[in-house]
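haha ok so turns out i had the wrong file open the whole time. this is the CORRECT one, sorry everyone. sequence first:
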Amino acid sequence: MCNKEKNIGELITFPELLKKPGDVVIPKVQRDYAYGRPEKKIKEILNGMLGSMIDAVIKNEPVILDFIYGGASVKDSQKSAGLIPLDGQQRLTTLWLLYFYASVLDDISKDEIEILKKFRYETRESANAFCRDLVNGIRIHILEQGYLSKKNMSIIDMIKDDALYRASYDTDPTIVSMINVLKVIENKCRPLSTLDPSLWERLITRRNIKFYEMPLDEFGLTDDLYIKMNSRGKRLTRFEIFKADIISQIKSLGKETKKLAEEFANLIDGTWIDIPWSYTDKSVNDERKVSDVTADVDSKYENLVRNVLSIYAYRKGLPTPEKPQLSDVFKDIESVKNVIEYFKTLYNIYVIADGDFDKVWGRYFYQDSNVKGQEDRIRVRVDNVFMLAMNGPLRVQPMIYFYCFYLLYKDARDDSEKFDDLRIIRNLITNNVRLNSARANNLHDFLIETEYVVKNHGIKQQVERGIPLVMQKNDGSEISHQVVFNQNTWNEEYLKLQFPRTKYDELLRYENHDILDSSLSLFIEYCKIDEETMDAESLEHLTMLLEKFVTVFDDDSRKETGKLTNIRVSFLDKETDYLQYDSYMSNDNRRFFLTGYKRASLFFIKYANRHNQLSILKLLEDMPYNAIDKAPIKYQSFDNESDWQYYVAKY
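then structure:
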């Protein structure tokens, strides 16, 4: 007899569950079977669970495996018999594998194992076919080959060698996990072949392994089911509710979105979960429980999903894009397909990176504290945006990079093209950030302009006030767009793309300089380079001037001594005003030529400093390299010790 526990469901065994009307069906909305994954913590969970169950069977003692939630399937308002579990899939599948192996170990008749055929998988057709083949032909063949009498035979090898075992099974994560769990079960249970009563008989007739079945049949698998689950017993997490809301919204669009809803559900609960799972600390100790691990996975996954939906909403110009309404995001079939494409592209990047986003991020970007820049990668001041997306809401700059990666990896692109486009986007967004104009209310336009750069593999048109950017729509028509990225930077990037390729590549090292920080317009203008004037002499003039700047502002320049002081003193014999106003200081403050390191970045970028900037470049240009590194003693020739130059040089 089955026992009823007040308010907590029915305490039953696995055979008792299978003997009820209808089948036990793992639905498509469930994630893959995971207890056979190679992670250390999962192995510990599996070994602990199997150990407690087998001990209970051998010692004829009870063990309770918590709750199994489920309901009947509802279709066209008709409720079918059977159970569709929404929670407990992993435990039920593990039990089924244990019973299957016991049927092999004890050579159970075909009629007796009919009960196992009432357990089915619908997450993937291949998983369902594997379960069916396992209890039918494969099991018969294993016994015919003498598995019971040959101790050196592995049930896994026999399963994989069977003609019914399909090559596609090796690519199904649920089947791979089942195979791994069967291997563990074999190791634990094969020594029990002489058990009397047998392992199978004990599993079938005794009530050692039990669990609470929480039936929700009166609701069926509708949205009411989730409400019911939230009101009693084990609650759904916030992320599970969020996923259910997404799927419900997609289904609400009509019958034609049913397959899309199923595809989204399968992917978000199956394939895509690998991303947050691989970035979660799975260690368990006295202070960190298994529930903490799963909570961390959910948190990372929810952040990732919400960030993707937010990027999509900003790009489409939807209301409240920072927290978009699902009804705005998933408003028609096309929008559902677009969002799925975002996630598929993200997962493709994850696969290309072998599960380590740093491998993709580090291919293009680097971070360090050196003043001088590298020449083969792009210096950025943001962390890996894929990891940031799992830790909380993305800010403006990371969101632009995330969207750029999506565009670059959505279609097949050469790696050098990706590098060039990311370099341009870095330069554009960096200048907006430095000029305090990288605001969230501009994100819609930032993303459109990022899309323009990627689509055109660069910038094809300069812009000015009153001269908007002309962009081509998918249907071939043209629209005008007022550029929101800094226009001077936009035009600088356009001009640099006209340089010979070798010179363009050479400029990356200077763009990566800590002070110049992606902007070279001051030097380009000083050298009078434009589309019409781009001769070899002008380009070499540019390189010479940049190289002198890099020589002055190296790692030692942070000390505010050494080369900067030497250069200032060397300038004293020039016919120029040594003391000049800094436009960002009050008028009663003066600054020596060559501003100090801390303010140098803004000083060499802001247009308000243009007069002083050009004067400095002229002095720097006239100065030989040896005067940069060698301390001058110019003050010794001064005759008049009351001259201010004498004291500036000396002190």
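Residues 222 and 354 are 38 Å apart (CA to CA).
again sry for the mixup
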